[in-house]
């Protein structure tokens, strides 16, 4: 009996936090991956360099840039699907460099859509963010919740979302949008709150520098986010194409309570020092996010497999490894 050859798919932003976990999930499910890492003169493949060799044997790394249409066309040629994760993501930096967010998150998405259109790629999964909803007006947040962008970052992501919608309506592009809530886990950057807390504790700090402790978030472990991407990318077209899907757990916890939980898991008594540079402008802070993922469950059968505590335990183990912690700068504010 002969087996069919693995399907080759493309991933933009593959060198990053979620992207590298998605690459692992795709390989585990039998795919081959063309992984775009942003071009740099160091030939760095980011987090892809830490993946096991048996994973990387099925990965072709392509250095390029989603802001360049030719790079995107080259990446997608010969693939059966594209998972578009490349983005500038740090909200505080979007206050300083908004033009770069439009170039990457809007123009970059346009380049991917155009390549999918020209090459006839059968499936595109576009990445959105729960930040496009702004502070929850009703909870849990469904996909019908109003879009209320409260930062240049979220505005740029909403622009990419609207392009995806427009290309589906105008040209029948087979695109589906996944809108993850707050993903966390190993390999996340220190600009996010969970690595910030865990990293500072792992580095020996007991007084943790943070911003506002009141906002609540729906934190989802990165392996569950990767499986949500895979579910949308492999579901029958009639179930997902032209649709937007939230991905989250349906639970929420405040930043302050999160600090308490991390302290318990790490056996540390923690105090919090308010750091003014970590506080968003008042009208830009999103105070509450909690997800309704019932549409995704109904369309694909996806369910998160990890509790918050289970995910935190794995994340603590990662950052407590001195070799991993050494990759980070825990003593500074990572914008």
From TrEMBL:
InterPro entries from the UniProt entry: Arna-like_SDR_e, NAD(P)-bd_dom, NAD(P)-bd_dom_sf
Parts forming coiled coils: none
One GO MF term attached to the UniProt entry: carboxy-lyase activity
SUPFAM superfamilies membership: NAD(P)-binding Rossmann-fold domains
Record-annotated NAD(P)-binding domain positions: 11-315
Pfam families in the record: GDP_Man_Dehyd
Top-level taxon: Bacteria
Residues making up the signal peptide according to the UniProt record: none
Xref: CDD domains: Arna_like_SDR_e
Record protein name field: UDP-glucose 4-epimerase
Organism: Streptomyces avermitilis
